Each structure stands twice: as C-alpha cells, then as structure tokens.
Amino acid sequence: MKKRIARLTAVLLVAMMMLSLAACSQGGKESETKDEADTKTSSKESSQPSDANEEMGETMAKIKKAGKIVMGVNATYAPFEFHKTIDGKDEIVGFDIKLGQAIADELGVEFEISDMSFDGLLPALATGKVDFLPGLAYSEERAENASFTKPYHKSVQVVLVSKDKAGEISADSDLSGKTIGILKGAVQEKTFPAHYPKAENYVLGKIPDLIAALQSGRIDGVCLDYVVASLYEKYNEDLKMSEIQYELTDEEDEGSCVLVRKDNNEDLIEVINTVLDRVIENGDLQKWEEDAIALMDMDDIG
After folding, report:
1. Rg of the chain over all Cα atoms, to the nearest angstrom
2. Quick check: 134 and 146 in contact, CB under 8 A?
3. More confident: 206 or 47
4. Are both 58-154+254-295 and 157-246 of the same fold?
5. Contact (Cβ atoms closer than 8 angstroms) between residue 229 and residue 188
C-alpha cells in the first residue's frame, strides 16, 4: 500500500514538473514573439518619414527649413515693383512687394527680395535661388520650368480727357464720333477699336505727342493704361480720367500670375492662391496698387 502511494506521488510530481516546464517554454515563446513584434514596429516607424515631410513639396520644405521665402524681381516695373527713395533710403516698393509680404505672413516665415536683371529671373527660379516670381503672364516657354497660380492682375485701359469736357465724355455711347488718341504699337491700337468701333482713332508714336494733341483740342481723348493715365492726371491739372475704361479680355491679356518651380509644388501654389483670393476679395490688392501709384512720378513710367 505504501509502495503504491509512493509510486502515485512520484507520478504526480513528474506530471507537475512537465506542466511547469511547458508553461515556462510557452511563456518564453510569447515573450520572444512580443519582443520581435516590438522591434519590427520600432524599426518600421523609424524608417518611415513623418507625414508632414512626406506631404510637403520641395520648395515648401526648403522655405520651412530656411524660415524665409525669397521673391525674385526686376525692380523696374512700376507700380508692380520699383525703386523709390524714402526718408533718404533706397527701397523696393510696389504692390507685388506687399503681396510677397502677405504670402510670407501666411506661411509664418521671413520675407526676402532678390532684385536682378529680367533675363535672370526664370533661371534663378529653376535653380532654387528664388522661391517665386510675381507679375508674369503665362507662356509656353515659361511653363517648361514653372507652374502658375491663378491670374491676379489684368491691365485696365482708360480714356483720358480734358477736365472741362469730362462731363461730355463719361459713358461708352459718348465716344461715338469722337476722336481718341492711341499709341502706335501699343495694346490699345488693337483692342480699343474692337471695344469702341464707333470712335475715330488718332494714332501717334509717342504718348507726349498724344497728350499735346489732347491739350490743344485736336482730339477728344487719349486711351492709355490706367497707371499711365493716372500719372498724367496727377501732374496735369487740366486732364482727368473719364469713367470710360475696359479690362482686356483673356484673349488680349491672360493676366499676371505668380510663378513657382515646376513639379511637386502644388502645396505652395495652393497657399498663394488662398492669399490671392483673400486680398482680391477684401480690396487689399487694389489698395496696394493705388498706394504704389501714389509713390510714382513721371520718371517711373517705363
């Protein structure tokens, strides 16, 4: 009887030891599997870029890293961008400069201007020396290396008249039979007759000659770009811009855009378009242009 009990006890001990070993072995495997999973997860996470970097375009990443955005200009195009002495200091001013600052503010970075020759602008953009170019129209040649925002500025043409006859020429119908001066070779030579076919055209090769003809009474008005007309009004008390004006059609003028480097910069274009929508809608862009024109004098007319 004692021997049977001893045998039974031995069997039970052996069984308990086997169960204990099996449990330890299983626990080790589970722990090993968990450690391997943690290692793989950590490795996977470290090998993947952050979502922000993965989604950011090339130029945007450059801007954020540098903490600044660089605008390329040829500062000889008033009122877009031009040099002006203010408080004895030469500064680059213009409504494109205000636009550039608004874009920088939207991105939360510093704003820098790089002034250079006109033919150096596109190469500077292509090589990343500058981040964007304002005030340029679409062309197939430019589209080879640049992407374009929506247009934000189109040339407006206005009829300048003698101040004492401003009341007689204030509506489109008033131009019927009137003689209007047009600059030879300018955009108005082609577009004005299309917009006002009942007016008579008086074509000369120089704006001062057209102004002299108007002031002497030989013609009834002169069709000029809004900026040019506003300066002649500013510096000639006997002249006034009429209410007659027209904006060029898309076929005549596709409008000025902002250019960024081509490819993988959709995020930057989206930001700039957002700024453009806002400053056009709230009137800031128009105010900036008017402020820039107020700083101009006759020497700033290109």
Report:
1. 36
2. no
3. 206
4. yes
5. no
Q: Which amino acid is at 57?
A: G
Burial of 215 (0-12, 13-18, 19+ CB in 10 A): middle
Q: How many CB atoms lie within 10 A of CB 249?
A: 12
Tokens at 270, concatenated: 């989206």
Judge contact between 201 and 222, C-beta under 8 A: no
Q: Which amino acid is at 289?
A: E
Q: Under a CB-based contact definition with an 8 Å cutoff, are residues 167 and 144 in contact?
A: no
Residue 133 has pLDDT above 70, yes or no: yes
Give Cα 120 to chain centroid, integer Å: 19
Multiple choice CATH, 157-246, 1.10.150.130, 3.30.300.20, 2.130.10.10, 3.40.190.10: 3.40.190.10
Identify the bridge partners of residue 249 per DSSP, sorted by sequence position.
none
d(CA 238, CA 217): 12
The answer to whether residue 22 scores a pLDDT higher than 60 is: no
pLDDT on residue 31? 46
Q: Are 43 and 96 in contact (CB under 8 A)?
A: no
**End-to-end CA gap in the chain:** 124
Per-residue pLDDT for 29 more than 80?
A: no
- 33 neighbors 235 (Cβ within 8 angstroms): no
Q: Regarding beta strands 76-77 and 68-73, do their DSSP bridges make them parallel or antiparallel, or are they unpaired? A: unpaired
The CATH code belonging to domain 58-154+254-295 is 3.40.190.10
Predicted confidence (pLDDT) at residue 54 exceeds the cutoff of 70:
no
Per-domain boundaries in the chain: 58-154+254-295, 157-246
